[in-house]
Amino acid sequence: MSSPLNDIWEAASATPYHPTIAKSAQFTAGFTLLIFAFILTGIFGLNRSIVNLPLLGIPASLAFGFGAVYMICAVGVYV
């Protein structure tokens, strides 16, 4: 008797996972995103306003978040 979980496991083995950014490019992507985030954060810190929040603040926080995760993965720290 076959269980549904075994069927899913067998179907998944035919299509392996391929990351969007290769392991060899994660350091470059993470470093670039972190530099971009620090630049945007600095500009946002110099002239804070409600208009600059969606233009600078949100992209800076997203770049910092994704950049930090890519850098953590690139240097081999797995969370």
Automatic annotation (TrEMBL):
Main location as per UniProt: membrane
Membrane-spanning ranges: 27-46, 53-78
A biological process from GO: protein N-linked glycosylation
Ribosomal protein as UniProt keyword: no
Keywords assigned: Membrane, Transmembrane, Transmembrane helix
Superkingdom classification of source: Eukaryota
Entry GO CC: oligosaccharyltransferase complex
Topology in the lipid bilayer: Multi-pass membrane protein
Family to which the UniProt record says this protein belongs: Belongs to the OST5 family.
Protein's name in the database: Dolichyl-diphosphooligosaccharide-protein glycosyltransferase subunit OST5
